[in-house]
Design brief:
single chain; 407 residues; mainly beta; 16-stranded antiparallel β-sheet; 4-stranded mixed β-sheet; globular
Length: 407
């Protein structure tokens, strides 16, 4: 979101460049296929190598100093018959429902960004008549927004009034994960689904479950000395359904509904992509973060060389019970008994960490001088984010010109 709010800058990067290595070996049990897909990600603490990016202090080289981006493995898996083992896109992500030609990967409802690639064991069964069944056991992400239980912080404050105390670090009282708290899971997530492919299009459905955990190693337990608990565990679930329909000529419509009940592992848009629940360390409440994500798009092909795509998505979040009473007031970030509300204060309102609604839309125009091998595209994106704290949402536009070569 920060990068989206920066205007008037031109950035060039090789991040989108990727290459794959594939092997196929016949065996007595069938063909063994291995795939490794590599792209170029950024080194730790670095932004784009052109200029200093958004950081005030930086280890990034100055403009023109060269490309310091390094390879990153996206996929590394093998298949034998119906089995797939290794890191690949989650079985929750249906590639036929990812909107073509839209480079903005913040599309709500779809797994495209922080959690799409998963170590997994997947089984796929072709049932005939275009019906495909799948089941996948996958590595799971988990995390929480956590309100501290220490004596120097207070999670609860009267409506419109600053909390009775402010965290000693000058920030708000939300310790997101915490420096000594971790999302460590004992069990992988599981999802199963069905897809049906016909000449008229494609429909699918998925159901997933997972056990979210947060383990704390602070001197004080998560819920205070009277309830010495440093391990929170909850079962969460998610469902999704979608369709891709061939309409007129070569046009296509896509639609997707994704509901996640505290299972961020199957919803890229929840929090930072890994927040499953809110933990109130002072009241002992634990509540799942839920989101309903809706996405729709339409692609129109004028001819083999020209096409346009429009896409819109929206996500609605609940207000978890565990956040009841959290402050709707930004403060100066002091450590006194009471800190007055300050517009744009250093310590954000506690409810500013709880999402309320996301909107994302995009439009692209693509020219393919060599269909299937060369694409030149112009894209316009809009993103709006609202949180439970009043007056603290943000919106931004982004423009993109892309040159894609396929071989």
């Amino acid at each position: 979101q920060l990068d989206r709010s920066i205007h008037g800058g031109l950035r060039n990067t090789v991040k989108g460049t990727n290459f794959a290595i594939e092997t196929r070996t016949p065996t007595d049990l069938g063909e063994v296929k291995t795939v490794m897909l590599v792209d170029f990600s950024l080194m730790a603490s670095q932004s784009n190598y052109i200029g200093a990016g958004t950081a005030v202090t930086s280890t990034k080289p100055s403009s023109g100093a060269g490309n310091n981006e390094v390879p990153r493995i996206q996929w590394a898996y093998g298949t034998l018959g119906p089995w797939l083992i290794g890191q690949y896109n989650s079985a929750w992500a249906d590639p036929l429902l990812i909107t073509p030609d839209i480079g903005d990967q913040s599309q709500i409802g779809k797994m495209q960004t922080v959690n799409i690639r998963r170590p997994q064991i997947r089984y796929t069964y072709l049932a005939g008549n275009g019906i495909t069944l799948s089941a996948s056991v996958e590595s799971m992400n988990t995390g929480a927004e956590y309100c501290q239980n220490t004596a120097t912080t207070t999670c609860i404050g009267a409506a419109g009034v600053a909390p009775a105390a402010i965290a000693t670090d000058g920030s708000d009282n939300l310790d997101v994960g915490g420096s000594s708290d971790g999302g460590i899971v004992n069990l992988p997530s599981f999802n199963t689904g069905i897809a049906w492919d016909q000449p008229w299009g494609h429909v699918m459905g998925r159901v997933g479950v997972g056990r979210s955990e947060l383990r704390g190693t602070n001197a004080l337990p998560l819920f205070g000395a009277t309830n010495f608990m440093n391990h929170v565990t909850q079962w969460h679930w998610a469902v999704e359904g979608g369709a891709m329909l061939n309409t007129w000529g070569q046009d296509q419509w896509r639609g997707l509904i994704n509901y996640s009940h505290g299972l961020s592992t199957y919803m890229s848009d929840m929090g930072n992509g890994t927040y499953d629940m809110i933990i109130n360390g002072q009241t002992g409440q634990v509540s799942p973060i839920t989101e309903l994500g809706l996405n729709t798009s339409y692609i129109h092909r004028f001819n083999p060389n020209w096409r346009t795509t429009a896409e819109f998505s929206i996500g609605f979040f609940n207000k978890p019970d565990a956040s009841a009473g959290w402050g709707n007031c930004a403060t100066a970030g002091g450590t006194g008994a009471v800190d007055a509300c300050v517009s744009g204060g250093a310590a954000a309102a506690q409810l500013a960490s709880v999402e309320k609604r996301h909107i994302e839309s995009a439009w692209s125009l693509t020219y393919s001088p060599v269909p299937g091998q060369v694409d030149i595209s112009l894209e316009l994106d809009y993103y709006d984010r609202q949180v439970q704290a009043s007056g603290t949402g943000a919106s931004a536009w982004a423009q993109r010109v892309g040159f894609n070569f396929y071989w």
